[in-house]
Write a structure and sequence with these properties.
The complex is a heterodimer. By secondary structure, chain A is an alpha+beta fold. Chain A is 69% helix and 8% strand. Chain A has two domains: 5-51 and 159-295, no CATH class; 55-154, Alpha-Beta Plaits (2-Layer Sandwich). Chain A is built from ten helices and four strands. In chain A, strands 2-3-1-4 form a four-stranded antiparallel sheet. By secondary structure, chain B is an alpha/beta fold. In chain B, α3 (96-105) packs across α4, α4 (111-124) packs across α5 (140-152) and α5 (140-152) packs parallel to α6. The chains are: A alpha+beta, B alpha/beta.
Amino acid sequence: MPIKVDYVVRETTSNLGRNISITLASVLTVAVSLALVGASLMLRTGVQNATQRWQGGIEFVVYMNVGANQDQIDAMARELGDSPEVKSFKYFDQQASYEEFKRLFSDSPEMIDSVRAEDLPPSYRVEPVNKDADSVESLASTFEQRPGVKQVVLASQTIRLIQNLSRALTLGIFVVAAILLGAAGLLILNTIRMAMFARRREIEVMKLVGATNWFIRVPFMLEGLVQGLIGALLAIGALALFQPFFEGWLPNPQEIPLVSGFTVSTASLLGIYVLLGVVGALVGTIGAGVAVTRFLDV
Amino acid sequence: MITLQNVTKTYKNSTVALRDANVEIAKGEFVFLVGASGSGKSTFIRLLNKEETPEKGHIYVAGKDIGQLSSWKVPFLRRNIGCVFQDFKLLPTKTVFENVAFALEVIGRPRSVVQTQVPAILDLVGLGHKAANFPDELSGGEQQRVSVARAFVNRPLILLADEPTGNLDPATSVGIMRLLDRINKTGTTVVMATHDRGIVDTMRRRVIELDRGSIVRDQARGVYE
């Protein structure tokens, strides 16, 4: 049986209007929790981008000269491979470095235009066996004087600090957001329950004259979905407004060595927004779905 | 049209609402269910549209064993059964027209059907001129007519009425009974639970008497007691 669109729209909007205060409460709770999720995801992406080179236990990077010849590069690979103190290492040739550069600066095309792959030095990213600061430093310095090496750069305490901080912060925010999302789901469940109570006579008549279960359920399910989606839209709007400030508040990358900008690319922003929308819709639908199956008794 | 075979219904508090009932009701019959309060009349009616399920026995409605009916099919069973209640169950926020139209809209009937069927049925029950009124602007008898109109607008095979005249004065009750009789004459099977001695004795239709869940009398052209 086709469910009439105009009927569903009419019922859903009148239900939303009937319990405007509790509807607002659930919408705002969804919005706040999703905004928190979004902000922590943005923070995490920003930190990841800024510390890209320093993930997976990489403690120092050996930059070769831009003009280093293949023999020098191969010699360095052999030496790193033979050293018992090196756990693993990864070679980034000029093209790979350029790809990474493009990704990091995807928001500033003028930067990408001004740099060609040939301008970037090839490098080895090294993970030592012993990560104690002193031994890392002495190991790194042994490669400093090899032919063709331009510079050896160590991950600083600052980077480790930023990474740990962001990890803890992300986790903390996620826990709070998860609790808030649960509360939002329960609020939506209660809104739907009240809407069903307000319409109990109609529901009774609908059952009597043979309306199908889904016909009775759909407006309530949609009500929950709409609440979740509006909450998500508010969160996305807030994040979009807040995003320029977010990037401004973070420390200027020039003040912290070895860190590229705390940028969040448009693509990952869009990804975050889509995720928030999906989560909002899910919370709304699940809340309403539980209410409908538990309390509708059809 | 309706068959009950050894139907027993016990409620959770171990009240026996219906005990080993065997009834056969043919198409187009008019049947009164009589008996004291709590004798099982309402349970009998609620079993027929599957608001309750029997504990034992089989119930056939329009050739189908409704005990075997999966829950998603129950709405389609109910489209063949109109229901009228003592308390009318009209929606106070909707007009007379909308109340009747509602029954068609929620089972997905197209607007064109609603626009033709609702005025026709309101004329049948004599309320064509009150279509735009709200239920609380009508008398009890008029409200019950609206409720009958709603039950019958989809032309069901069966009309179940649970004390439809319970809230009405005798003169008004006669009007409702004329209406039900008229609906019965169109071939609709009518099952009506009632306490109204006068109505049962005047109409002289089949009477099934229940006493504490058991059928104690099943009499063609019967009287109240």
